[in-house]
Write a structure and sequence with these properties.
heterodimer; A: alpha+beta; Glutaredoxin; 4-stranded mixed β-sheet; 4 strands; globular; B: mainly alpha; flat
Chain lengths: 87, 377
């Protein structure tokens, strides 16, 4: 569960409730997993489009989009954080 | 195409707690299980049994409502109260059952479609056929008006024609499965089919017209400079039947779980009208005779933002008091299909003239539908 480098997690969304929920889910998952990670929200649409997503909310880990178009569950995010695939 | 935004960033006139929004946080974990034929068969078997049980229960609703009203409460047949009570006791569970079934089925169907897939199907299509396909895909693809901008960019940067993109954007909110179920449950299949058919027609035709007008220059310049979106995330992983069933359950929990108070309230209003309000109460103002009522209904409807479940009780109240069907249908379509908040979101990618054209063309389509039904029915 411990990693050497800090994970960079980006929450992509223009500020709708689902995006805020996603941020909350990610925050809890990071907390539970005890991982060293930074979470930042990307709310500017032009910035979001640089991630090449077609649906928000989306979650990018280290610049890679892992979830898009839905609010993930805490467990899903934890699986992703530990390097697994989305169920 | 469900309105998942809840309170939109633009801060429009949203109802306090928009149903069907804000997905639940705490879902049970779904263990990743490879799709094997036996598990699939088990799901189909269980599904069939559940469907049978659903049908039996559904058939029992009418006798139950009669028994409840006349035997248990011993109300006199023909009395106003009896009529209202029977209506409510029959309609409320009926509509909720229909809603659950349809939302589940739509959830499963949607697990086959993603925005990425819709785009792959539509990229490089000619107009006409593309407009038809886009309108149909708009119905089955999971869509949230928060995602309108990334979706728009993802479509146009990968070669989906502008008009075809608009067909998708119009049909996605306008043809709504909840509205369809409620209309079917409360007014019968003819009105439900009319709604779905005309909604699709408006999406196809208005997208085609916008395409013909050649308004690509009124898209903000940075859009075409943006990298083609949507190559990443949720596009290509394989989905088992187990996942699809879970997708359906999630949809039910998401939508039916939040929508039901609106439905029950709507039916209660309907029941009161059914029993108490004199017929043709609204006929003078919103009847087929008043020509100005259709444009007025559309004008009132555009700034209003509600989802289908919130608007149907109003529809029922208006129809019950003698408003003309075309007028009411136009009102409903302009509320759910043309929303001011969505236009404000789209302003990030579209110039004002294109947004105005979009609203104008779709609004004109809704007007035409309103008049058509007022004349035909």
């Amino acid at each position: 569960m411990t990693r050497k480098e800090t994970l960079k997690i980006a929450i992509l969304g223009t500020g709708c409730p689902k995006c805020r929920q996603t941020a909350e889910v990610v925050r809890r998952a990071v907390e539970q997993a005890g991982i060293d990670a930074t979470i930042h929200k990307v709310e500017d649409i032009q910035e979001i489009m640089k991630f090449r997503v077609m649906a928000t909310p989306a979650v990018a880990i280290d610049g890679q989009v892992r979830i898009s178009g839905k609010v993930p569950t805490v467990d899903e995010v934890r699986t992703l954080l530990s390097g697994g695939e989305t169920p | 195409m469900s309105e998942c935004c809840g309170k939109n960033p633009a801060g429009g006139t949203t109802p306090p707690v928009p149903p069907g929004c804000e997905a639940g946080l705490a879902e049970p974990p779904i263990p990743a299980v490879a799709s094997d034929p036996r598990a699939t068969a088990k799901y189909f078997g269980t599904g069939l049994i559940a469907l049978g049980a659903w049908w039996l229960l559904y058939q029992g609703l009418s006798p139950f409502a009669k028994w409840f009203t006349f035997s248990l409460l011993t109300l006199t047949p023909g009395a106003r109260l009896a009529s209202a009570v029977e209506f409510f006791v029959f309609e409320a569970p009926k509509v909720l059952m229909l809603l659950t079934l349809v939302v589940f089925a739509v959830g499963v169907v949607r697990s086959f479609f993603t925005p990425e897939r819709a785009r792959r199907i539509l990229a490089g299509r000619k107009e006409s056929a593309g407009n038809v396909l886009a309108a149909l895909l708009g119905v089955v693809t999971p869509f949230c008006s928060c995602s309108a901008v990334p979706l728009f960019i993802g479509f146009v940067t990968s070669g989906v024609p502008l008009g075809v993109t608009f067909s998708f954007l119009v049909s996605a909110p306008m043809v709504n499965e909840i509205a369809l179920v409620l209309l079917y449950g409360l007014f019968g299949w003819k009105i439900a089919v009319l709604y779905a058919g005309t909604g699709l027609a408006i999406a196809m035709v208005s997208g085609w017209i916008i395409g013909r007008m050649g308004m690509e220059g009124h898209v903000e310049e940075w859009v075409y400079a943006a990298p083609a979106g949507g190559d990443e995330g949720g596009g290509s992983r394989s989905v088992s039947w187990r996942d699809r069933v879970h997708f359906g359950f999630d949809a039910v929990r998401d939508i039916a779980g939040k929508v039901w108070p609106y439905v029950v309230a709507g039916i209660a209003v309907g029941a009161a009208i059914h029993g108490y309000v004199p017929e043709n109460f609204m006929a003078g103002i919103m009847g087929a005779g008043a020509w100005w009522s259709v444009p007025l209904a559309v004008l009132i409807g555009i700034p209003m933002y509600s989802n289908a479940a919130g608007i149907i009780p109003v529809v029922q109240a208006l129809l019950g008091k003698g408003a003309a069907l075309g007028t009411v249908l136009a009102f409903m379509m302009s509320v759910i299909g043309l929303s001011l908040p969505e236009m404000i979101i789209l302003r990030k990618v579209l110039k004002v003239r294109l947004i105005a054209t979009f609203a104008g063309v779709v609004g004109a389509g809704i007007l035409a539908v309103g008049y058509l039904f007022n004349v035909l029915l």
